[in-house]
């Protein structure tokens, strides 16, 4: 199933940049993945 082919790569990149994030919130894939990922990153920095 390749419905979200880039999502794993985006998360891998985030984990590479920000370090291990074992408690990273699940992304609601019904939303825009990039916008949702940006929201998750913003929350993680707060």
TrEMBL record:
Name assigned to this protein: Uncharacterized protein
Source organism of the structure: Aegilops tauschii subsp. strangulata (Goatgrass)
